[in-house]
Design a protein that fits this description.
seven-stranded mixed beta sheet; six-stranded mixed beta sheet
């Protein structure tokens, strides 16, 4: 009886392992996308497969590219700005079926005239393009650690600062949705890296401020802080740069402005150290763009401390 029970348990174990291996084996070549954040817009661009060595229950995929930089430069142009943030996303290829991959190793580099520039990927696969303008080839490599399958992807990247992003043209600002948004982070007193902080960001008036320049401060969701934390607001990527910035404290009972302090536009970033008085308070950072003395743009970043 014991031998039969042992045999039965062993067979179940083997079947379970077979199922696991089958899941990994079923996984086909992933589809790679590049996400670009331009202001309030988010572009998703599919990258092109290059060198691939991949086996699954759907068959084997073998693709070979001799000159990766030449091949990359033949692809459609992906335009980005200097220092622009981006991220990588990998989706399951539905044609091949299977589950998502386990603990893949992902690397990304840029090629220019035979020279390689390593891109530092964060845990969420975010990175930043360099500041130097020019034509590059983005090379992304995906290695499935379970089956040692490999897939390489490329895209032609053109880094260039456009006039629309740099300056006010004929008294007009670029589209609000294309403008970079300010960044707000919380820094713990014992940490070197900041974390994104809850906030709201909204257009008040844009290229027509004479008729629409009224703003009602919202009941914003609070972000958790402790005494000694630092809230940091960074607008260095905004193009064109605002001509005036004000820090406003908001009454949370009637949502009216209690205090207003002008901030030096070139003093980037703005650090707000949290003390006992600031906990429970609500603030707004007002960004103004002017053409001479004429107001042509106004936006508001709102946050609340708890």
């Amino acid at each position: 009886m014991n031998k039969l029970l042992t045999l039965f348990v062993g067979m179940l174990f083997i079947f379970a392992l077979t199922g696991c291996f089958g899941e990994d084996y079923d996984v086909g070549v992933p589809i790679a996308h590049l996400h670009l954040e331009k202001g309030l817009q988010n572009q998703q661009i599919k990258l092109t497969e290059a060198n691939v060595s991949w086996s699954s229950s759907s068959g084997e995929v073998k693709e070979t590219v001799d000159n990766i930089e030449k091949f990359g430069l033949s692809q459609d142009v992906i335009s980005v700005s200097p220092n622009q943030k981006a991220s990588l996303e990998f989706k399951e290829n539905e044609d091949n079926g299977g589950d998502i991959w386990r603990d893949p190793t992902i690397t990304a580099v840029l090629w220019k005239h035979g020279e390689k520039i390593d891109l530092e990927l964060k845990d969420n696969r975010e990175f930043q393009f360099p500041t130097n303008e020019g034509d590059y080839v983005l090379e992304v490599e995906f290695i499935n650690s379970v089956s040692v399958n490999r897939a390489q992807y490329v895209g032609k990247i053109v880094i260039k600062e456009t006039n629309e992003q740099m300056k006010i043209t004929d008294g007009k600002l670029p589209e609000f949705t294309l403008m970079e948004i300010p960044e707000i982070k919380k820094f713990k007193s014992t940490e070197s890296d900041g974390e994104l902080f809850d906030y709201g960001y909204a257009e008040v008036c844009w290229n027509n401020c004479s008729k629409n320049n009224i703003y009602n401060f919202p009941d914003i969701h609070s972000g958790d802080v402790e005494i000694g934390d630092v809230i940091q607001i960074d607008w260095h990527e905004m193009r064109p740069q605002p001509t005036e910035i004000n820090l406003l404290q908001i009454n949370t009972d009637n949502y009216e402005v209690i205090k207003k302090k002008n901030i030096n536009v070139t003093n980037i970033p703005l650090d707000i150290e949290i003390d006992e008085k600031k906990i429970g308070a609500q603030y707004a950072v007002e960004f103004l763009w002017k053409d001479g003395n004429k107001l042509i743009g106004r936006s508001m970043l709102n946050f609340r401390l708890e």
